[in-house]
Amino acid sequence: MCTLSFVPISATNYIFTSNRDERKSRSSAFAPTLHKEKGVKFLAPIDGEALGTWLGATEQGRVVCLLNGEFKVHIPTPPYKHSRGKVVIDALTAPNVLKYLEDYDFDNIEPFTLIVVENKNSIELNQFVWDGSKKHFSELDSSIPHIWSSSTLYNPQQKEKRALRFMDWLEAEKRSPRDILSVHEGINAEGKLGLSMLRPQYCTVSSTQLEVDAVSVKMIYHDRLTQEKDQLRLPFTIINYESQTGL
């Protein structure tokens, strides 16, 4: 929700790791389970207050993650039409996610950044930003790593420094999914890279990692407050995208 990394392994395999940084007083989330809405099966944890989610993966190979905020910090102006967590579920279950984002009226929804990955014949990586008045679409290079930090909790200088340190760490040697998760779960200290937050009012409440290949997604979820860990796997429904597009 507030720190996200994407690390490609091959043309169809990648590692997607998310830290959820929240108020310490916020209700705990429910651990990931298999859900089904609009005929679509997906894995997702569920927020304990708004009952939406910040991250999910479907049986069609779509992964969606939401970060609070847009390009810069904003001043909240509630009440809002609905929670941003509903956007993730709608994006997971939409027949065409980009059409859903183009068509949906996000007026009176708090600003957010949405990362969408489609694992068809190759990885498609898209970023959608709602700044409170305008939609911004970007197609990103899925052959290189990316990292995002929420504008609501990290200023531009902090975001840039975290990104540089993470990329340097990745390039130093071959990193395993376990290595990447350990960095997400670590606290930044002198000489040690860590992406978790520990502030008086906010902290990293959970870390979630998806290991995605051509046939399935494995979700590893770590509740950082209770120290409970869950692991689930969802096989993909086999779809021949080439035959559908006539290519």
Automatic annotation (TrEMBL):
InterPro entries: TANGO2. It holds the Pfam family TANGO2. This is NRDE family protein. It comes from Flammeovirga aprica JL-4.
